[in-house]
Design goal:
elongated, about 15% helix, mainly beta, 16-stranded antiparallel β-barrel, Porin, 24 strands, 5 helices, disordered N terminus, 2 domains, about 475 residues
């Protein structure tokens, strides 16, 4: 035993001396060195095998230790990740502090005509949540909004992504409809979304299941089956199954054709289902989040439910720092009330143009069929070494619910007295991004009503508003 130890020491010394020799100069690992020493006769094969076995054990122990390590980092959120990257979790949130002022008149008593027209500050959103991935293929997210009446569950879902071509999602999440809706409120082009985002036309976050994926480069699809009732609302009608089927597909031809620094996005959406009888059509506010200019009574059907069909098309074309985007969407309601068969439609569209003055590329923020975070070329530095990203934009929107009139019978979509069924709106915006996680937005919104709107004894044919947002997300 002693002779083996002495021989091992001699071998180690000899190995150290031989490291300076040319034949071993190219050895790049411990295993290479051991094999070279065996070849030189410094070590026997038995001794070399023992050393390699020990080395293998050390490697295995090091790999297990690395895989079990948890590393914390910050990248658009506070993230913890396992050493083998199969499991990670992050804490995320956003805060949006808004202010808005409008020219809507006061009533004769000196009070505001309507609460929505009041000049005010507003915590528009205050989200806090967690999301993560376990064992490579199972992702989740649970987020609450503390700005809406105390607290409100925003999303809570599980996404199983065994294959990128076909993923499966379960829970409450954003439905696959409308480019503007699918884009997070953190990254939308203006402070508020357009008239297309009316909940009558565009489904938002709902409870359901969905299969979605990217079967080919630049092509995305989704098919969802939801309650059709909006966020945090279960289906309660035991006699009528009023769930919605929602389908969407889009393609980025710039990605398909390998056109760099560009986005050529086209997409289409379709939804069909029933909504419970006596459910009211959602009201519509101006894009300055001001007065409620459109409202209607409930739609009823003697057959217990009203059929609702929604369709939309979208296009976005960007090259470098310039982007043009537009959408058209409509909803059709069909039902029967007594002997009256009725059909009512709501239509909306918008077109917009934006320019990143500081030269960032919109293509860099586009992924998965929607736009994401813009990263300034140079973050703002108060010492004068960077000014962040600056963007200007203009949008025109149109809303048309002319099928809803005051002459309609009460249960077939009668326009509420003092409201209008058509409006159009211009929005001009300035946006400053000091860094990828902070935004300041200033919007001027000019809305014209097709007919006078009367609220609180005040009658106006338009609304002009100035809005501001300070936002931070992580």
């Amino acid at each position: 035993m002693k002779s083996i130890q002495l021989r091992g020491i001699a071998a180690a010394v000899s190995g150290a001396l031989l490291l300076g020799a040319a034949p071993l100069a190219l050895a790049d690992s411990t295993d290479d060195i051991i094999n070279a020493l065996i070849g030189k006769g410094v070590l026997t094969e038995e001794e070399g095998a023992l050393l390699q076995k020990g080395r293998a054990g050390e490697k295995e122990a090091a790999e297990k230790k690395k895989a079990s390590e948890v590393k914390a980092s910050f990248k658009d959120g506070i993230t913890w990740e396992s050493g083998d990257k199969s499991t990670k979790m992050s804490v995320n949130g956003r805060i949006q502090l808004d202010s808005r002022t409008s020219d809507w008149s006061e009533s004769s008593s000196g009070t505001e005509a309507n609460a929505n027209s009041a000049d005010t500050f507003d915590i528009r959103r205050a989200y806090l949540g967690v999301k993560g991935t376990f064992w490579d293929y199972y992702s989740f997210e649970a987020t609450a909004d503390f700005a809406q009446n105390g607290s409100d569950l925003d999303v809570a879902y599980l996404n199983v992504h065994w294959w990128k071509e076909a993923q499966f999602q379960f829970g409450q999440f954003k439905m696959p409809f409308s480019l503007e809706e699918r884009t997070s409120s953190r990254f939308i082009d203006f402070q508020e979304r357009s008239f297309v985002n009316n909940s009558n036309i565009t489904p938002g976050k709902e409870q359901g299941v969905m299969v979605h994926g990217t079967p080919f480069k630049g092509i995305n699809y989704a098919l969802a089956y939801s309650t059709g009732q909006g966020k945090n609302t279960d289906e309660t009608d035991v006699r009528e199954d009023s769930k919605d089927w929602i389908a969407h597909a889009d393609a980025n031809f710039a990605e398909i054709a390998d056109i760099k620094d560009a986005v050529i996005h086209v997409g289409a959406s379709y939804a069909n289902g029933d909504q419970p009888s006596t459910k009211s059509v959602s009201a519509q506010r101006t894009e300055g989040r001001g007065v409620e200019f459109f409202a209607s009574g409930a739609l009823t059907d003697d057959g217990r439910s009203v059929e609702r069909t929604r369709q939309g098309v979208e296009g976005s074309f960007a090259y470098g720092p310039v982007k043009l985007q537009g959408e058209y969407a409509m909803a059709k309601y069909e039902g029967q009330s007594g002997v009256v068969d009725y059909e009512r439609e709501i239509k909306a569209w918008y077109a917009e143009a934006l320019w990143l003055i500081t030269g960032e590329s919109y293509a860099d923020s586009y992924k998965g069929g929607k736009y994401d975070r813009i990263k300034p070329k140079n973050n703002f530095n108060p010492k004068g070494q960077g000014w962040g990203a600056w963007e200007v934009g203009v949008r025109f929107s149109d809303f048309d619910a002319s099928d809803f009139t005051v002459a309609n019978s009460a249960t077939t979509g009668r326009l509420t007295a003092g409201r209008t069924n058509e409006a159009d709106s211009w929005t001009v915006g300035l946006k400053w991004l000091p860094n990828p996680n902070t935004r300041f937005l200033l919007n001027y919104v000019d809305t014209d009503f097709d007919s006078d709107v009367t609220i609180g004894n005040v009658t106006e044919d338009s609304e002009k508003s100035l809005t501001f947002r300070a936002q931070f997300d992580f």
